[in-house]
Amino acid sequence: MTVWDRPAVQRLAKVSDDLRATGLTELLEQVIADVWDVNVARHEPSARGDTARSLGVTSAENIRELLLRDLTRPDSPWLARGVQASTPEGALTIRTCGLDLRIKKAPSARDRSPDWDAFDWHSASATHRAAAQQNAAAYMPTATASAQLALPGMPSAIGRPTGLTQVCLVWSGDGRTGLSAAWLGFPTLGRSPWLAVTPLWWHEQTESAAAKHGAGTHATSQPFSAQDVPELSLVLKTTARRVNG
User: How far, CA to CA in Å, does 245 sit from each of 88, 143, 206, 218, 239?
Assistant: First the structure.
């Protein structure tokens, strides 16, 4: 189990609460889950030459365009809530509550659980790399900044966690069932690519969804409580995804 930086976890808990209060988390969940479910249903490797990469790229582009359209149209209710969206260098950036939020699909995994150490911001897009750099400049635990553990007498961190304003929503999807999961985290540079990560949702199978995808009724292969979560105890949300059969 990954143990995240405690002050960063506390800061992330507040950030997560703030995003939920705006209603933005619910919107992101609905759009990402719907896009992935629809694209998995029409994914046909044998008939159309679809690949796992094409599925992920198409879904990411669909999510970006749908969110951008919803958040920026002239009559969008999100404008009154102080939510702004733009696409610098083609990457969707959502600004609200003093935060910059970006969305990234995790590499394919058997059980939808990302390998958090596998993220490499140095080779990522310029916008994701800049976000990690900004967080690292604002707050860096001493042990994270160096390959050596902090020595006695050294400050525990450089900067303050309140300066962490760059957040990333990482989502993952099951290519067999059309189910999705997502986490919120602070990207950074150093020994670990993340200062803290917290779950947002982990959808479980319903009978109608199982019939649609031909997977058989089942729950997720790993219960939500067993997912890779921060050391601090946070309130987690588990939802069931209903799909019309």
Answer: 39, 51, 10, 16, 18
- For 39, the token pair is 């694209």
Mean pLDDT taken over the chain: 82
Tokens of 84: 């702004």
CB 198 within 8 A of CB 151: no
DSSP code of residue 193: S
**Three-state DSSP class for residue 104:** strand
Residue 244 has pLDDT above 90, yes or no: no
Q: Which residues are within 8 A (CB) of 187 and not within 5 positions of it... i.e. 6 or more apart?
A: 119, 121, 128, 131, 132, 135, 166, 168, 193, 194, 195
* 205-221 pLDDT tens trace: 875 555 555 543 333 33
pTM of the model: 0.79
Placement of tokens 């143990």 in the chain: 3
What is the radius of gyration, based on Cα positions, of the chain?
A: 18
What sections of 109-160 are H helices per DSSP? 126-138, 142-145
Instruction: Tell the residue number behind the tokens 């919120």, with chain if given.
Output: 184
Instruction: Return the DSSP state at 172.
Output: E
pLDDT surpasses 50 at 201: yes
Sign, CA torsion 220/223/224/228:
negative
Instruction: Please tell me the predicted confidence (pLDDT) of residue 112.
Output: 87
What is the rounded distance in angstroms from the CA atom of residue 137 to the CA atom of residue 134?
A: 5
Beta carbons of 122 and 132 less than 8 angstroms apart? no
